[in-house]
Design brief:
Blueprint (H helix, E strand, L loop, with lengths): L3 E4 L2 H9 L1 E4 L8 E2 H8 L8 E4 L4 E2 L6 E2 L4 E4 L6
Parallel strand pairs: 1-4
Antiparallel strand pairs: 2-7, 3-7, 5-6
Length: 81
């Protein structure tokens, strides 16, 4: 099955960036692809039907490393905090 390519806004990247605590480079507890974090805010399609394209790279809040769609991240326990 072909996947639908979905571009996200810079605001969506920023929103998802705020929901992460670290990336695989600085945390051994990183286990979720950043695309899944993006998907949690955009549920127009099933997760297995889409592939997200970022207009800008996100940044890890811990090590400031670049985070793309495929980067494995650690999600905050309470993202609204």
């Amino acid at each position: 099955m072909d996947k639908l390519l979905v571009t996200v806004s810079q605001a969506a990247v920023t929103q998802a960036e705020r929901a992460i605590e670290a990336c695989h480079r600085c945390s051994d507890r990183a286990e979720i692809p950043f695309s899944r974090v993006l998907h949690s805010f955009r549920r127009h399609y099933r997760e297995d039907e889409v592939e997200y394209i970022l207009p800008v790279l996100a940044q890890c809040p811990t090590c400031c490393g670049d985070v793309d769609e495929n980067t494995v991240v650690q999600v905050k326990q309470n993202p609204s905090a």
